[in-house]
Write a structure and sequence with these properties.
Helix content: 55-70%
Shape: globular
Strand content: under 5%
CATH topology of the largest domain: hpI Integrase, Chain A
Order of helices and strands: HHHHHHHEEEHHHHHH
Number of strands: 3
Radius of gyration: 23 Å
Number of helices: 13
Structural class: mainly alpha
CATH superfamily of the largest domain: Intergrase catalytic core
CATH class of the largest domain: Mainly Alpha
Length: about 300
Amino acid sequence: MPTELAYLLEEFAFELNVGKGFSSNTVKAYLSDVSDLQGFMESKSQTEVSDLDLELLRDWLWRASEKGLTKTTLARKSAAVRAFTAWLHKNGKLELDPGLKLRSPKASRTLPKVVSRDAMSGIFDKLEPLATVDNPAAIQDLLMVELLYGSGIRVSELVGLNLEDIDYGRKILRVIGKGNKQRMVPYSDPASEALAVWIRSGRMQFENEVSQNALLISSRGKRVGVRQVYALVASLLSETAVGQAGPHALRHSAATHLLDGGADLRAVQELLGHSSLATTQIYTHVSVDRLKQGYLKAHPRA
């Protein structure tokens, strides 16, 4: 990687982390995309910042599309590079911002996967009998699914929970979402029961000197990671009609079931931590789609 561009990438990373307050996952993805662009520049022997122009950006994005990347990924790569060139222009490294005219394919917005109420009941019917005092791992499995589905939190928010983030009296969690934004999220009565069992008897069987204040810990006492939660949920959902899916499907399901039950759209937006109401509105489309399917199956003149 060119020395100047490598140095600028470090400064850009600082801007994303501190100036923009982006989540660690977003920063990681953006830096990976910009590094990919820089590697492409090197392959063309264009190693100077001044070599960045619209033609080069379009060529790079076209080559990326040739790899069979999804529209969503291409849109993110385009957004990352536009942010980089805008930052370069703002800081006087580029006279003009070539990213202003870079267009990426619009991401196709498919309806999210939603687990049916009956399927969720089946999952809990499977987990609950296993969550006994002599099986702390199963107690924690039940708690993780209860919190993901009952509160609609992201898996990264779940594994980041600490003991002091729980308000037992009001049944509220304090979570840190995207952009390090904090919000308060209620949790259900079943989640409260699972949480009580985990704190009272499950967690102490795993706790050691490295556990510190993490709510969820592995059998070795370390904070539970995203991969562990993903493996659990993916295994459970593989036996449902949803098929291959991860923890985010439980978040989708929570939002959809809330709207199906008559919850206010803005209340769901606040629960999920969406900055834009438009993002939450995708779940209204899911509800309408489910309504249509039910109508077609049930109405005699459908």
